[in-house]
Amino acid sequence: MTLYMIGLGLGSAKDITLRGLEAIKKSDYVYLENYTSTLPASRETLEKFYGKEILLATRDLVEKNADEIIEAAKKKNVCFLVVGDVFGATTHTDLYLCAKKKKVEVELIHNASIINAVSATGLELYKFGKTTSIVFEEEGWFPNTPYEVLESNQKHNLHTLFLLDIKISEPSKEDLLKENNKPQLSRYMSIRQAIEILFKLEKKHKKKLIKKDTMMVGVARLTQPEQKIVYAKAKTLLETSLGGPLHCLIIPGKLHFVEEEFLEQFQK
Ligand SMILES: C[S@@+](CC[C@H](N)C(=O)[O-])C[C@H]1O[C@@H](n2cnc3c(N)ncnc32)[C@H](O)[C@@H]1O
C-alpha cells in the first residue's frame, strides 16, 4: 500500500495533475493539509471534484500524530494533499521520512509552488536568494529574520521573496466529525501590513535597506483568475490595496534589463 504525497498547485481544484487525481481515485483515505496555505476552493468543492471524502489534517495531526496517517498507509492507499507543492516552502519531509522509516511506500506527486510561480513577475528564479517569512507581531515576538535575510540577499544582488503569515483556525475534534466543516482562513497578512513591519525593522536596525522609494513587487492570488501583481515604490504599495488573500512580497535585487522590461507591465 502507498502513501501518496500530492501537491495541489495554487490556482483552483483543477490544478491537480492527472497523476495526482488518479492516485486520489484509488485511495481509501484522503487527507488535506491546508493550515500552511489555502486553495480558493472549499473542502466540499474539492470532494465533488475528486469524488472522495476529504479528511482535514490539522497541524496537530501532522506534527504530533503523523502515525495515524502512516499506520493507515500500511494497509490502505492514503493520500496526503498539500496546497502548492508537497516540499515547496513548507516542507513535509518529516512525514516522508517517518513513513520511510516505517517501511511504508511513499510516492511524491509534485505541482507548482509559490516558490516557482513567482516567476510570473518576470524575475529570474535563479536569481532569488533565501526565502523568508514575515509573521504577525505578537507579545515579545518580533523576529529580525526577514531583515537579516534581505541584507544577506542584497549583498549578493539576489531577489528576496517574503512569504506572509496566515492563521487558519483549526476545527476541534468534534467539529471534524460534523458535516460541512471547513478550515477558516481567520487572518492573513496583506502586502501593506508586511511593508509596515519591514519599515519597523528598518527603524530598529537602521541599515537603509528599506526606504520609501525602494522598488517592491506585490503579488496577490497568484495563478488564480484574479491574480494581481504590482511593481511600485514601497510608499505607493503602502497605499495600494491588492484585494483578498493570499499575498506575498518581493524585493528585487539587481535587475537584468529583460527582468526590468517584464516588470514594466506591472508598474504603478
Ligand atoms: C507556506 S507558503 C506555501 C507553501 C505551499 N506548500 C507551496 O508550495 O506554495 C504559504 C505562503 O505563500 C504565499 N502564497 C501561497 N500561495 C500564494 C498565492 N497564490 N499568491 C500569493 N502568495 C501565495 C503566502 O504568503 C502564503 O502565506
Question: Can you characterise this structure?
Answer:
The structure is a single chain. This protein starts with a strand and ends with a helix. The longest helix has 15 residues, at 191-205. It contains eleven helices and twelve strands. The model has no long low-confidence stretch (mean pLDDT 92). It has 268 residues and is an alpha/beta fold. It has a five-stranded parallel beta sheet with strand order 3-2-4-1-5, sandwiched between helices. The chain has a five-stranded mixed beta sheet with strand order 6-7-12-10-11. Helix content is 33%, strand content 21%. The chain folds into two domains: 2-112, Cobalt-precorrin-4 Transmethylase, domain 1; 115-264, Methyltransferase, Cobalt-precorrin-4 Transmethylase, Domain 2 (2-Layer Sandwich). Strand 2, helix 2 and strand 3 (55-56) form a beta-alpha-beta unit. The site of S-adenosylmethionine (SAM) has 23 residues, from strand 7, strand 10 and strand 12. S-adenosylmethionine (SAM) is lined by residues 10, 36-37, 82-85, 88-90, 113-114, 163-164, 166, 219-223, 246-248.
